[in-house]
Amino acid sequence: MDPFDNHSTERANLPRNMIENSMFEEEPDVVDLAKDSSAFPTFPALDPDEAVYEPRSSRLLVRGLGENDLDEDEEDCESSARLLGMSFMNRSSAHRSNSSPYTRQAPPRSCPRPSARTMVVCVLFLVIVCSMTMVLYFLPGCTFTRTGCRKPNKTSPMETIFPLSTSGELFPWVEYRLPHSISPLSYDLTLNPNLNNMTFTGRSVINMSVLHNTKRIVLHSANLNITKATFKLGDEAARDVTVLEYKPRQQIAVNFPEELKAGQYCVLTLDYSANLSHTYDGFYNSSYTDKDGKKRVLAATQFEPLYARKAFPCFDEPSFKATFLIKISRKPDYMTLSNMPKAKTTQLPNGLMEDEFERTTFNMSTYLVAFIVGDFTSISQNVSDTLVSVYSVPEKKEHTDYALDAGVKLLEFYNNFCEINYPFKKLDLVAIPDFLAGAMENWGLITFRETSLLVGKQSSPLEKQVVASVIAHELAHQWFGNLVTMRWWNDLWLNEGFATYMQYYSLQTVLPNLEIGNLFLAVRFRALDKDALNSSHAVSTEVNSPSQVEEMFDSVSYEKGASILLMLNASLPGEHQFRKGIIQYLKQFSGSNADTNDLWNSLTEVEVSPQHQNVSEMMRSWTSQKGFPLVTVSRQGDQVTLTQEHFLLTSDYATHTSSLWNIPVTYVNDNCSVAPECRQVFNLMTKSGTFKMAESVKWLKINYRNTGFYIVHYGDEGWTALGDALSENVNVLTPEDRASLIHNIFALSRLGRVSFLQVNNLLNYISNETDTSPVTEALLQLSNIYQLLCKRQEHSLVARMKNYIMHHFGSLMEKQTWGEEESVSNQELRSVLLETACHLKEGNCAQQAKALFKSYVESNGTLRIPGDLQQAVFNVAAQSNEDWETLRDLYSHVTFDAEKRKMLRGLASTQDAWRIVWILHAGLKGDVIQTQELPLVISTVCSGFTGYLFVWDFIQENWDSLIEKFPVGSFAIQSIIKSATSQFSTQAHLDQVTSFFSGLKERGSQMRSVQEALETIRLNQRWMDKNLVVLQNWL
Ligand SMILES: [Zn+2]
Q1: 437 Cα to the center of ligand 1, angstroms
Q2: What integer pLDDT is reported at residue 129 of this predicted model?
Q3: Is the full-model pTM beyond 0.90?
Q4: DSSP for 764-829, written as a single string
Q5: How far is the CA of 359 from the centre of ligand 1 (A)?
């Protein structure tokens, strides 16, 4: 999935809080340990009862139940628990009590004249120590680790607490993850949506095999009213069965008096009815107004990560793969689409038509199932043996050509690159009018937001870049994710990191004119910024609850995942080794599931050069721990010493300070610094390492072209030498290297390792800079500071900062033109420069923009503002009363989506308080402005001074409506929290944010994005305390 609704590089990531829940899964006692322990501070303490369980008083303790029903490894766990002869009770009470022998009974410092009492105490102490040692010896090694001896789907039959199902009977399962005793083989789904009353009925026929003896079948179902259930074992006749439901976990179960035996086959048939979802997940209704002003309705699906269960009862976990045969009924004037080609259409007695699709030819995870009912038109083209089609609502058909062209080219690329052809006969790309994510990679039926798929013939290359990127990402998923799927959501990065990396990789080859490199570089910088927070998490992280799964869709899984794949590819000898390893991985796990180790093992197996470091060893250090290293360089004579440490912006509650990474450090020096042959490699695997370098070398640049995921500190002399070299000639380094120096020095300033004066020394060269990446990075960093100063109402500093920006970039801004521009890179540069200039009300920028807007309005749609200038123009227009109204009119009529979104951002950039209130409420209501746009509206409003305080109030007042529309933990909620809080820098705001979120409890208090927000405010506060005086003296 591409959860990002636009391709700005502003993306959120969040803190962790899975310890309580995962521990709670095991046994209630362990919960108390988590609650009482201060070893794992989280904010604020989660009450597991409220989060996942019924109140304790309503629970029943059932001993011995389910003992016959264990999987093999469940039995392993059980027998080892029995062997231990002690339960979690003892361990947890030892942790819980302050009078534990560990803490209280410290040995006496000396025993010069041991009294009898002291002797007794000493002996007792020794006995205790010996007993504890023996216990520790016999306990498995994992017992006292933070994660404990986690075994998925384990029940401890001696202490299992079963919750009550809706009917009052005991529900026979206690975990989020389903048991593995039953495996679905195929689903036959029949769906009857009614778009008049927004309901549907369905039948799910599930063929299953029994893997281990069991007396129950447990699967997922959410908000479905099951009206009939039958069960058929082998050749026996079908019989009615009772379905139990446990709503907090979205599970249903059927109990059997006799055991189902391993090796048997059975069929569960469930009839049900439900409402079409009114949020953006499950089987949901969507609508739009056509060009005649008529409201049109449609129904579409969005199942990733946990919403297939809202459309049909199923084993809704990625490792339960099965085949699917889908039938959908519709009115004759509608059409349907699903993953596979249509097999036949039948006329039903009630006047409706029923479309039946071919059975999927591959086993597939439930989250990839998709179907749509609506009115669409399409264009198509054949590539290899696949018919590629692009669908849109009829009036937008003319905007589909580019997507088809890009889709065809990219499909050919992936067929060749992966050496496995796309397996289905058709691939549909569909633009859905109302869609929250950027796009979703459903196998054979990729769904998109209209802005991610539709561009006009006149569109600028920058607009095409957005569309091509999303298509490239989703097509990559057809292999990375659909063919080979992560075993569980903890390894989401295997889907998303890969798709993100392949999206940039494929576009550089297939559509080089889109110059995607600048965007990929910026994305890696932002991933570093997020991962520098203590609230970040390891790429591969344990998750259990639905909100934890939602939270995995963040910049760590996507952008850090992509960044470490780039680093790996760049560090391997030769172009093809990475690809060979990937092909092996895809072939080995085709049609099934894999985890992170499987990937590294595949890449290690094809390794050819023995002197090269082991891929598994190297990459595990990047996926198993959070954060990334700071590499510090020091030179003495001909010795260069590199030292690594965890780059951690705040050390509050830090737990990973001793981390080490296996870093393929690359470097160039002043003798040879630009061409790829100049690059040298040093593997830094320990805390520090040295290599030799002639003393005559003036400077070193580490992390050549910023392909590594780390930050470098050159020390005072190193930074000065680099700054001097750039002031003399900017071209001594590649643009990527220059941008990376700028990014790194700002990051070091935020960390407190360099002063702002040193930042300024490096930036002295920037007046000579004309390349897109270094200019945009420097402007972004300076405007972040400018924004913080604005929000603190430091008026004099704001004015001086503006002068500073103009001093460095003024002449480059003046050189920009206002006509059509062909090069993507120039468009990126121009749009950033002019948006900044107009925002700072500099020179003739605003006049130019106003004039262009006027001609545009007067031309009645015949004149087009160049795509990269639209934002600057609409932002300026929105500052005047009259033009804001005109823009709002245009917004409600324009059909071209990329332009429409820029108008919306323009409208949201107003400084008028009434309009700000109107636009926030309109976004929440969802009629004039679609609710899917609310995160964008909020982030835009927050960038203005007037808006950002309104937004904070708005969010507090409307929190319940927000989490009703966007799930807790989802990318939309992450983005909203970040927008609203990331510019706060005072204690008063920190207190407000803390107090608001701690009061939310299960309605979002435990989200990682809340941790991130608090950490960011503290960082802003710290930066301000340290630098306000510096800026006052110096700016
Ligand atoms: Zn994706």
Answers
A1: 10
A2: 55
A3: no
A4: GGGGG---HHHHHHHHHHHHHHHHHHHHTT-HHHHHHHHHHHHHHHHHHHHT--SS----HHHHHH
A5: 25
For the chain, which residues score pLDDT lower than 50? 6-114, 135-157
Q: Which residue type is seen at 952?
A: W
Q: How many helices and strands, by DSSP H and E, does the chain display?
A: 34, 31
For tokens 């129904």, the residue is: 299
Residues 6+ away with beta carbon under 8 Å from 40: 19, 34, 146
Give me ligand 1 centre to Cα 420, in Å.
20
Catalytic residue among 358, 474, 551, 933: 474
Angle formed at CA 290 by CA 289 and CA 296, multiple of 5 degrees: 60
Is 474 among the catalytic positions?
yes
Single-letter amino acid code for the residue at 75: E
In three-state secondary structure terms, 943 is helix
The angle formed by the CA atoms of residues 760, 763 and 764, to the nearest 5 degrees, is 90
pLDDT of residue 825: 93
All residues at 6 or more sequence positions from 735 whose CB lies less than 8 Å from its CB, including other chains: 771, 772, 773, 774
Separation of alpha carbons 895 and 799, rounded Å: 40
Q: Could you identify the residue written with the tokens 């340290």?
A: 1026
pLDDT at 828: 93
pLDDT of residue 547: 87
For β-strands 445-449 and 426-432, DSSP reports them as parallel
Residue 607 CB contacts under 8 Å (≥ 6 apart), including other chains:
577, 581, 614, 615
Cα of 417 from ligand 1 centre, angstroms: 19
Span from the CA of 61 to the centroid of ligand 1 (angstroms): 42
Q: Per residue in 718-739, is it b (16+ CB within 10 Å) or e — as a string?
A: bbebbbebbeeebebbbbbbbb
CB 483 within 8 A of CB 590: yes
* Under 8 Å between Cβ of 875 and 839: yes
* Interhelix angle 772-791/824-839, nearest 10 degrees: 20
Span from the CA of 475 to the centroid of ligand 1 (angstroms): 9
Q: How is residue 627 annotated by DSSP? A: S
How far is 387 from 773, CA to CA, in rounded Å?
38
Nearest to 499 by CA among 561, 455, 550: 561
Give me the pLDDT at residue 609, please.
62
d(CA 197, CA 278): 12
* Cα-Cα-Cα-Cα dihedral sign, residues 368, 373, 376, 378: positive
431 neighbors 450 (Cβ within 8 angstroms)? yes
CB distance 253 to 244 below 8 Å = yes
Q: State residue 20's pLDDT score.
A: 26
Please name every residue paired with 388 in a beta bridge, in sequence order, or none if there are none.
381, 427
Distance CA 756, CA 781 (A): 12
Measured in Å, residue 196 CA sits from the centre of ligand 1 at: 33
Strand partners, 265: 209
Cα 505 to ligand 1 centre (Å):
15
**Residues 902, 866: contact at Cβ < 8 Å?**
no
Whole-angstrom CA distances from 483 to 246, 549, 586, 597, 600 are: 32, 21, 8, 18, 18
pLDDT for position 159: 67
CA distance 552 to 306: 12
Q: Which amino acid is at 105?
A: Q
